[in-house]
Amino acid sequence: MEAINFGELSFRFASLSSTMDFGRILARLGFPEGTAVLADEQSAGRGTRGRHWHSPAKKGLYVSFLLRPPVAFLNLVPLTAGLAAAEAIEKLAGVNINLKWPNDLLLKDRKIGGILCESQTAQAGEPYVVAGFGINLNHHQEDFPPEVASLASSLYLTSGQNYQPEELFRLLGKQLQFWYNKLKEGQADLIVGRLEKKLFFSSGQTLIIQEPAGQVKGQFIGLGEDGSLILQTGRENKKYYASEIIKVTDGND
């Protein structure tokens, strides 16, 4: 298929178990990158590490985009998606969005959205990525499950205004296509540099991250050119790719 503008070809549902699952079906059927799947609500939306993503009807934007990146850029796709989402929300609502590496969107220190990217290999041997976005737009406080109510927020809770998911979808498609094209053009350094400025922590701060083998504590040095998190642990710098940040402090406490 010929290249399309992101979101130009979209599949829309009043309710769907998961936009990501449907996106994988489209990938295997050969649909072009930029194809989107939207749902007014999801019954089995998911976040990282198998967590459930609460997706009540018409309260947020729940969308997945199909991407077919070169293998060399797979690690940078989630960060590219995060940068695009942050800028799209800022254009929509005039707020400042920070990023919690690698996949959370923060508004005033509360989580307003998340990104999940899943990659697989198509029958032809080329990789594809389904990039899923869940962004809280019109949630009231009582719309959040008790276990996340103290951590989550929405644009409505910040501004008192309701927003149209369709408008954010349009902006997100535009920003994602812009930064994704930069990635494929080999401008990863531009993406990493822009994203580093939007992190909610900065160089020199101490991070505690969760790894499969346990927690790791180190001083944040910066992001690698491959999007990795670089921490100074003891006398050496180490790269991390999919860890969860547990805590950020200004010193060694």
Describe, in plain words, how this protein is organized in 3D.
This protein is of the alpha+beta class and 253 residues long. It folds into 2 domains: 10-196, Bira Bifunctional Protein, Domain 2 (BirA Bifunctional Protein, domain 2); 206-249, SH3 type barrels (Roll). It is built from 5 helices and 12 strands. The protein has helices at 19-28, 77-93, 155-159, 165-184, 188-196, and strands spanning 10-13, 36-39, 60-67, 98-100, 104-107, 110-121, 127-136, 206-211, 214-223, 229-233, 236-240, 244-249. The strands form 2 sheets. The chain has a 7-stranded mixed beta sheet with strand order 1-2-3-7-6-5-4.
Derived structural class:
alpha+beta
CATH superfamily of the largest domain: Bira Bifunctional Protein, Domain 2
Cα distance spanning the termini: 55 Å
**From the 3D coordinates, which CATH architecture of the largest domain would you assign?**
2-Layer Sandwich
- Count of DSSP E strands? 12
Are there runs of 5+ residues with pLDDT below 50, and where? none
Q: Indicate the proportion of strand residues.
A: 25-35%
CATH topology of the largest domain: BirA Bifunctional Protein, domain 2
Q: What is the N-to-C order of secondary-structure elements (H for helix, E for strand)? A: EHEEHEEEEHHHEEEEE
Biggest sheet features: 7 strands, mixed
